[in-house]
Amino acid sequence: MLTHPLYKGSDLLLEEGGLALPCERGGLEINPACRLCPLGIQARHPCLAADGEPGGLLVLGGKSTREEDAAGRPFVGGSGAYARQRVARGWKGPVVWDLAVRCPGEVTPRVVTACRQYLAQTLREAAPKRIIALGDVAWRALTGRGSSPLTMRQAFTWVGDVPAFLVIHPQSARQNRFVARWFEDDLAWALKADPPFPSVAGLTYQEVETVEDAEEAAEDLGDHPWVAVDAETSGVEHNPGFRVTCFAVSAPGGQPAYVWGPEQIASKEIRAPLLRLLADPRIEKVGSNLKSDVAFMRELGPVNGKLGDVRLWRKLQDPEASGGLASMAELVGMGGHKLEMEAAIAAAKESVGRRTAGKRQASIRLGAQDGPAYEPEDLLERLAAGDEFLSYGYGLVPRKTLTNYNLRDAVSTARLATLLRPRLDERPGLRMVWDEIVGPMTHAVSRMEAWGMPVSRAALDSFDAHLSANLAQARKKLDAYGKDFNPGSTADVSELLFKRLGLRPPPDTETDKGTQSVAEDVLASLAKEHQAPADILEYRSLVKMKGTYCDGMRALIRADGRIHPSFLPDGTRTGRCSSQSPNLQNIPRPDSIEGKMARDIFAAEPGHVLIHADYSQLELRILAMLSQDETMIRMFKSGVDFHQQTAEMIAPYMHWTTVGKAQRSIAKQVNFALAFMMSDQSLAVKLGTTEEEAAKVHKAILGEFRDFARWTRQALQDVRRDGYCRTYWRGQPARQRSMWRIASMDGQERSKAEHGAVNSPIQGSASDFCNRSMSEVVRWLEDDAVPAQLVMAIHDALLLHVREDAVDEVAQGVKEIMLSWDSGNVPLDVDVEVGPSWGSLRKWRM
Description:
Elements: E1 2-5, E2 14-15, E3 18-19, H1 22-26, E4 51-52, E5 57-63, H2 66-71, H3 77-90, E6 95-101, H4 109-126, E7 130-134, H5 136-143, E8 156-159, E9 162-167, H6 170-173, H7 177-192, E10 204-208, H8 211-221, E11 226-234, E12 243-250, E13 257-260, H9 262-266, H10 268-279, E14 284-287, H11 290-298, E15 307-309, H12 310-317, H13 325-328, H14 338-356, H15 379-384, H16 390-393, H17 399-425, H18 428-451, E16 453-454, H19 457-479, H20 490-500, H21 520-526, H22 531-556, E17 562-563, E18 566-568, E19 578-580, H23 593-600, E20 608-615, H24 618-627, H25 630-638, H26 642-654, H27 661-675, H28 680-687, H29 691-704, H30 706-722, E21 724-729, E22 732-738, H31 747-783, E23 788-794, E24 797-803, H32 807-818, E25 830-835, E26 842-843
Parallel strand pairs: 5-6, 5-7, 7-9, 10-13, 11-14, 14-15
Antiparallel strand pairs: 1-10, 2-3, 4-6, 8-9, 11-12, 12-13, 16-17, 18-19, 20-24, 20-25, 21-22, 23-24, 25-26
Helix pairs in contact: 4-5, 8-10, 11-18, 12-17, 12-18, 18-31, 19-22, 19-23, 21-22, 24-30, 24-31, 26-27, 26-29, 28-29, 31-32
C-alpha cells in the first residue's frame, strides 16, 4: 500500500495551506511610488504601510478608505476605531494592523493580486502567531480565493503553521445589529480559540494497490461507526460507458483515509472489500451531496446503513450558507483544494481541444501514470456526439491529481461531519427535521433521479413542429420591420422602437451602462402603444420555448429513453425541493396549447399511466394552521370552496354584481397575496385596479381573517426581535431561517425580510409535508414491491409512473400517505389525477 501526502506542492498561489507569492521569492519593500495597479495614482499615501508591533496578532482589513489615506495610517475612522476597540477587549499582546488593498478606490482582482505582494512582506516582518482577516477582500488577499464571511462564519485556514480566521468586516457590523452580534462573537472566538482541526500539512493517505491492501483498508475503516465517502466518475450518467473512476473513504476526523484509484476500482477483486464496507448496515455512510454518491455507489453494488450528508446538515443549520464542498471546506481548514483540480481540468480541456482540431495524439490508456487517470477509447466521438466535456473531465486529469483531489473531498467531508453533527444534535428542532424529513430524502431523491421521467419522442417532435411553424409566422411579422431585423439584438430593437417608431421608453428603465433596456417588462409596457413590441415578445417567447422544451429536452434524453433531472433537497431557503438539468418544476401550466404540449412530452410508457397527487391549497391550510384563524379553519372544515368564499367576501369592494369563475380566479390571487405579504401596489397590478381599491380589498380580507392579521403582526414582531423565523412540524418548532436583513438600513432588503418573516414559515412548513410524503412513498413502493415509480416532485405534488393494473392501489396508497401527517385542527386534502401524459390528466375516481 502506497502512502502519499494529502497536499502536494503546486504552482498555485495557495500552496500547503499557506502563501507562496512571487515576492517571497524575490522580495519587495513597501513602495510609496507603487504603480502595480491604477489606485496609487490618486492616493495621498500610496502603498499605505502596516502599523503596530510585530510578534503577536496580525489584523488584516479590506481596502484603504479615504480617511485612512488622508491619515496615512490603517484602521482609522468609524469602522477602524470600532475594530481596534473590539480587538483590544480580547487581545492584550502586540498587534500589527494592515490592509489587503493599500490605496482607496475600486477593488478588482488585479488590484488584490498586486497588493498581495506587499501582504507577503508584512507576513514576514510581522511574524504573527495568529491572523484575523476582516471581510472578503482580506480573505481573498490572504488565501487567493473568495468567501463570504456572512455565510462562512468561523472559517479558518493555516498560513504555514499560523492559524488565520475569517471574520465579518466591521463596516457590515455597524450597519446591522444582528451582524454586529455575529461580528463580536466571531471576533472573540478568533482571538482566543484554537482551530478545531490541525493543518493538513503532513497529513497522509493510503492508496490501495492490491487485494491485501483493500482488505486491510476495509478492516481499518470497518472499526468506525461511520465513514466519509466520495466518488469521482467519468461519462454521462444513465448512458453506456458511465463508470466510477476513483473512490475515497475517510474515518471520522479525516484519518486514516484510503483511495481506490482507476485500476483498483475497475478490478472486481480489489474493489470487493470496499463493496462489503458499503453494504455493511452497521456503518453509516456520510457524504457531501450524498444522493449523487449513493447513485454512483450503486453502480458498484448495494449500499446499506444510515446515510448522512454534511451539505444538508450545513443548510439546515444555515439556509443562507453555501452548501458546496469548496465553500464548506473553509470551516475545517481545507479551503482551496478545488483550485488545483480546476487548473488540471482546464489544461485537459485545452489538450482535448487541440486533438479535436486535428492535432491528434495517441490516447493514453487506463492506468498510465503520466497521463489521464481514465480516458474512454471513443472520447472524441462522444464529445462530437454532444456529450459535455465536464462529464469526462475528472478522468482526464493526471492520475495523482485525481486521487489526491478525491481524498481531499473525503477528508474535508469527514472533518465537516465531525464539526456539524454535534451542532445539529444541539438543536432538537433541526434534529427532528433531519431524522424525519431531510435525512430520508437522500434515498428518496436518489431513487427518483435514477427512475427518471419517461419521454415521448413523438410528442416532442410534434411540439417542435408546432413551434417551428409558429416561429415562421412570427418571423414574417418581424420582416415588416426589415428583412435583416434581429429581434435578439438589443441594438436592432432599440433602433426600431425608439428611433424609427419614436416610442418613448418607460421611466427608470436604463441599464447600468446607461443604455436603454429592451427587457421583457419594458417591451410589455410598450406593447400597449404599438404592435411591434408585442411581435418581438411573441418571437422571443417562441424561440425560448423551442430552445428550452424541444432542443434542450432532446439533448437530455438518456439511453433508457428518459430524462433524469437532478433534485435538490436544499434547493430553496425555505426547504422546498427544487430540480435542475432540467428544471421540470418550471414547465408551463397546461392552460395554453403550448403549455399542454410541453407537458405532454412526458408520457407514460406502454401499459402504464401517470398519477399526479397534489395537495389542495396546502399553503393556505398551513397559514390557517399556524395562525389558528377561526374563519379559515371553519371554511376548510366545512369543505366549501375557499377561493369562491373569498370572492364573495371581496365582491362589494370590487363592485362585482355576480361571483363566477373569473371572480374566483381573482380571489385566488388575493388569497396567495396574503401568504406573500403582497403590497397594495403589487395587488393592484394583479387585480387590474387602483392602489386605493386594492387597499380596500386588503383591509376587507384582513377584517374577515382577524386571527391571521394578528399572527402576521406577531410574526413580524418576533423576527424584528430575534432575527430569524421558524417552520413547524408536528406542532413543534422545526427549521430556522435567519432574517438578519430585517435590521438592514437598506429599505428594499428590509422589506424583503419582512415578507419572508410571514411567507417562510408558511412555505417552509408546507414544503415538509410534500418532502415527508416523497420519502414515505418511495419506502412503500420499494418495501411492498408496488409496480410504480416516483418520477417527479413538483412543489406540493408528486408524479408517479404506474402500471395500468395498479392505478387504484397506487392512487389510494399515495393519497393516504399524503394525508397521514399531523396538521393540527386543519384538515388536509389531496387531488389525484390520472392520464397517459402529464398534460392530459383527468380526475381519478375509484
